[in-house]
Each structure stands twice: as C-alpha cells, then as structure tokens.
Amino acid sequence: MMAACGGCGPGYASPGEAFTSTSKEKIVYLPCIIPDKDRPDYLATVDVDPDSPTYSTVISRLHFPYIGDEIHHTGWNACSSCHNDSSRSRSRLIVPGLGSDRIYIVDVKTDPLNPKLDKVIEPWEMHAFGVSTPHTTHCLADGNVMISTLGDGPQKNGKGSFILLDGETFKPKGTWPATDADVAPYGYDFWYQPYHNVMISTEWGHPRCFFKGLDLAEVENGSYGTHLNVYDWKEKKLIQKIDLGKEGVMPLEIRFLHDPKATEGFVGSALFAKMFRFFKTEEGDWAAEKVIDIPNKEVEGWILPEMPGVMTDIIISMDDKYLYFSNWLHGDIRQYDITDTRNPKLTGQVFFGGSVQAGGPVTVTKDQELSVQPGVRYAKRKRIEGAPQMLQLSLDGKRLYVTTSLFSHWDKQFYPEMCKNGSMMFIIDVDTKNGGLQLNNDFLVDFGAEPDGPVLAHEIRYPGGDCTSDIYVAGMESKK
Question: Which residues contact residue 390 at a Cβ distance below 8 angstroms, ignoring those fewer than 6 apart?
C-alpha cells in the first residue's frame, strides 16, 4: 500500500509517483458515530480488496472508551510531506472528537487489520491552550502534527486556531498562530503549500450554533463564516482574508492542486453550493473567483421554497485532472475536468439518495438542470437513505469511495431515516479517460447492519495515504 523505496519515509515522493503506483488500497478506516450518543463511537476497518473473501465487510472495530465524542475526520502522524525522512513511519491515525474535544491516537502499525488505542489527549489538555472542537489533521515535515480547532473551549464560541502535537509523545505543545491577532474568528479545514510559503484555512461557524442543527437565522446574523484565511507559513502570521460574500458562506473543504508548486486550488462553499477557485495573483497576494454555481431548485413540501445543493465535500484526483464534489441535499456527485482550472467542464454525474427523489415529500416545481426528479435507488435491495457526502479517491483515480453521513446533528435534521437505519458506503467506478461515474453494484457496506445497531460512518482513510491526507513538498524526487 505504500511506496517501495529503500531508506524512504512514508508515502510517495510526488503526486505523479502516487498516481502511477501499482499499489491498490486493500483496507480503509472509517469513524463510526453513534447517533443517540448512548454508547461509544468506534473506528471501523473495512475490506476493500475485491480478491478477499471478506470484501465489502467490516472486519474489525475499535471502540473508544467514552460516549459523545462525535469523531469526524482523521489524519496521520506522518505522510508524504516527510517522505525523505527514513526515520518517520505512518504508524498512528489521529482521531479528533469534534464533540468532546478529545483526541485519540490509534496504533495502526502493529496490526493494520486490528487498530489499537495508543494514547488519549483529554479535553482539558486542549482547553489549557484556549482551543476546542478539533477537526482537520495534517502531519508536518518537521515531525509535528497540526490540527485545526474551531472553538475557544467548553463555551464553544468560534475561534479558528490550530493545535500542535509533538510527533513522538503526541502531547499538545502549543498553538500554531504567531499571536492572538493571527487567530481567525472561525475555523474548519486547511492546506499548506511550503513552496509558496502559504497556508490557507476555511471557516464553518460557532460550534455552539452548528451543534444545534442548521438555523438559517444564525446564517443571517453572521454566526457562520465566509472567509478564506491566508497565512505566511514560515512566520505563522495571518496576512490576508478573502471574503467570499454571502453566497460563499460556509467555505468548508479546501484543496490545493496536488502539484507542490501549484499556485491554485478549489474550495467548496457548502450552503449555497458554489465552487471557488483560489489563486496567487501577479502582485503576489491571493484571490478567489467563483467557477461552478449549482442552482437552487424551487420546491414544495420542504422547509424553504428553494433548496440549495449543500456542497459538502470536494476532492481532486492525484493527477490534477478531475475535481469531484457532493451535493448533499440534491443527492448527486459530480465530476469536472479541471484541465482549464478557470473553466471546469462537467464530465460525470450520478444521483442516489437526496431530498428531491421522485415520490417523496418534496416536489420540485422548477429545476434549471433536470427535467424530472431523480428516482429512488437501491443497493443490494436496500433503499439508499441520506445522500452522497464524504468522498475518497483511489490514487489511480479509478475508484471513488462515498459515505452518506455529514454530521449527526445535521443528519437528524435533514435525513432522520438515515439516523434510524444507519449510513452506507459505496464505490463509484470512474472513467478516467473520457469522464463518467457509475455506481458499483458489487460493493456496499450497510452500517445499519452493525452488531450493536445502526451507526453513521464518515470520512475514509487508506493506510498508505490518499488524495486528501497527504501534502507533497517540492523537490522530494531529488532527495530520494
């Protein structure tokens, strides 16, 4: 699953090496969230090797010791950013608890098929540094681990900071921003690009707001963010704020192109389903422009007269050719050719689940894109509840993994049947030559059939690194 390289560290020297590697993912790790918080969340290991007798099943579960963690996204202690360091090993999966402010350190090296809990960072250790609500994890080339934090502590007010963990002990060692003035009002995701001395972070909102569910009045009063926050990577200084405006509210997932010298990437603004391209200008600062705009659907039988797409996850193929994203309310995944990053071209689309299925409670009265409402879809004779949400792509770009849960508090609001029946995991087969997406009928993991009851599976991680976990550093090829 990892690069075969004598004396090399984790991952691959370059995105190109990862893309052309012959290795295929055989297992994946997913956080599984308990909707009612009456038992602990757990980490599931799923067999994705089609030649295995346990293909398309959960083969192990690591149950965490506490309830109410709301584990969400995960990351690594080491990745391709330290590929040139042979002393580094991708041995620990970092599992933050969005709800509890706890962080689990999971040993995946001793037995990759049966991960074991190694260490626990307790909430008060986070609160001592004035942060909470840990979200995105990225390993750093210097050996530390950096996690975005969305809150200020137990009060759960918005505060966009970052906690640093020691790469050996995994103890919190401080916050990353240079001063309090370099902390943003809100936080969420981030991506760094050392070659251009830049890191850019995104914004969700006040944790005390989004943990209650989505209230549009709180969107209107400014309780959710609209900015990209641009940092000087070396100095750890906030040097620019890019306001995407009301239509850009909730800029969540951010992805630079994988090319470590790239000066551009994409960010999905969730609520109103707008895709922005961000880029470095000729003057040396950064800017953003809207390049994809998913129109609202006019509807009856819903909470509002218009339904936005709610673009919740985005991912870029390792060769920087295709951009994928999910529209969680409309119920579709789209594939765009981004050879011309300023003019993405739609090349593939697939619908399953969603809030506008034919025969459901919502009637679409005006649709700028579709002439009929999508039909109900089934997988292995089970109705698909929820909608496509989290995405992960194989390194060769041919398999797109999908789960259907967003965040348990919002799942209950928009897809209560999924909360009752559990989420699902799918594979979408990808045409990488001409474009195109097709649901793989041979693969389904039904998390409603779990031994102790239905759960909500979320982000997908490959043990050898994937299209969102690893950041590449320019010049690694010459250092091999």
Answer: 312, 313, 326, 402, 403, 405, 458, 459, 460
Scan for tokens 């779990």, then name that residue: 450
List of residues 6+ apart from 97 with CB closer than 8 A:
41, 66, 69, 70, 71, 72, 103, 104, 134
Cα 403 from Cα 196, distance rounded (Å): 34
Question: Element (H or E) spanning 414, and its range?
Answer: helix 408-414
Measured at the CA of 378, the angle between CA 326 and CA 35, to 5 degrees, comes to 65
Asked whether residue 477 carries a pLDDT value surpassing 80, the answer given is no
Is pLDDT above 80 for 13? no
Tell me how far apart the alpha carbons of residues 274 and 100 are, in angstroms, rounded to a whole number.
31
Identify each DSSP E strand in 296-419 by its residue range.
297-300, 306-307, 311-316, 322-327, 332-337, 345-351, 363-366, 378-379, 382-383, 391-393, 399-403
Say which residue the tokens 């190694």 belong to.
Answer: 118
Residue 314: phi and psi, rounded to 5, are: -135, 155
Instruction: Choose the weakest-confidence range: 4-18, 204-218, 250-264, 462-476.
Output: 4-18
Which tokens belong to 314?
A: 């985005």
Residue 94: closest CA among 110, 79, 114: 79
Q: Given the structure tokens 């299925």, which residue do they identify?
A: 357
| Report field, pTM of the whole predicted structure over 0.85 | yes
Check residue 10 and give its pLDDT. 62
Q: How confident is the model at residue 1 (pLDDT cuts 50, 70, 90)?
A: very low
292-315: pLDDT as tens digits: 999 999 999 999 999 999 999 999
- Residue 466: both structure tokens together: 């994937």
- Cβ count within 10 A of residue 68: 15
Question: Which H helix or E strand runs over 420?
Answer: helix 416-421
